[in-house]
What we know:
A hairpin with a 7-residue loop joins strand 15 and strand 16. It contains 15 helices and 16 strands. The chain has about 425 residues and is α+β, with helices and mostly antiparallel strands.
Amino acid sequence: MSMRIQSIRGMHDVLPPASGALRYVEQTMQAVLQQYGYQEIRLPILEHTELFRRSLGTVTDIVEKEMYTFEDRNGDSLTLRPEGTASCVRAALQQGILFRQPVRLWYGGPFFRHERPQKGRYRQFHQLGAETFGLAGPDVDAELIIMCRHMWQRLAILPRASLQINSLGTLQARQRYRAALVEYFRQHERRLDDLEKQRLEANPMRILDSKNPELAEIIGDAPGLTEYLDPESAEHFEGLQSLLDAAGIDYDINPHLVRGLDYYSKTVFEWIVPEQGSQATICAGGRYDGLVEQLGGKPYPAAGFAVGLERIMALLEETWNSDTEIDAYLVLVGDQAVLAGMQLASQLRDHFPSLSVVVNCGGGSIKTQMKRADKSNAKLAIILAEDELRDNTVGIKFLRERREQETIPRDNLVSNLDKYLGA
Ligand code: ATP
Ligand code: MG
């Protein structure tokens, strides 16, 4: 026998019931997005490498060490998308939808980063994100945050999630802040590791994003961005806070919240679930007014967020019930029963569009088939054997409740099924 081929490290098969949980999370969030008037955009998984280099900045974790980049057969450098915002802006510009009207979009699917795999951190993972274009005020920033709260409510994880906000101000404000940070970290240079020393030159704000616990104290005492804010950004930030207060949303202002990516300005926020350690951030977002211009458009307001679905799934693990998704299992004994049963199953599916009916395939005694029915997690077994065929009846066996088996005329099945399923 030849050796079995394994999946790539950090890239996982999602099996049932986890696949059901993932679908539930996606559908729940999509329903909320729809309620806020966001429309789906489907984006390619591959983009030109240049898109991410230009949007994320070359001294970010993602571009420096996390991208899956390779040459196409014709020598073009392509990259598996590590995030969605750049592609979304690229598409909106390319398709000419950006400047039409305020645009509200969402996207979802797999993303790829070459990171060290661990719980809540994978090389292929799923994000669901929302982006808005053309709206400059704090109202839409608040809308994005309120929409997130709505999602957590629906997913029943709101009590565990907390919100942190900050303002990064304008590019000029950040430059002033950057100078102050460099000066501060220079004083503590001895305590920085090699990586952070490099960052001190290239992008000192990233030191604040460090997950090294030994740096927590120095980072905690570092100057915050708030004092360096320009008046316009400060006013914007206050506007956001009033809107969140009015919506009854609790938040902490974290003056060291900077996000790993280069393109943010003004509002940044993160929803975190503190007990999840260094994989605590379930959702990260903010305003990125400079990105459209950076990608070849004119300066244009934009804001959005991305949710890491595996991290949401980890929270649901304890509460997710992998309850039966199958309603009825058809036990069919004998060739004639198979013929009649297949038809009956089609009838049921036509009549009840959301009903799931599994037909026994592969024959077997009634005992064998009943065992399969039970294992399938179905609520009901619908039995068609010799007696039932002769009498034009079906047997109904309740697999999940203590209830006498019944035999009813086959013609009555459709009209009675609701009752048997307890719906
Ligand atoms: P982190 O600081 O945890 O590395 P990040 O700042 O790199 O996160 P973003 O680029 O903001 O993450 O992505 C948005 C969200 O996507 C994150 O908050 C997280 O929930 C999720 N995410 C990011 N990278 C991964 C990954 N490798 N595996 C699983 N989820 C991820
Ligand atoms: Mg990261």
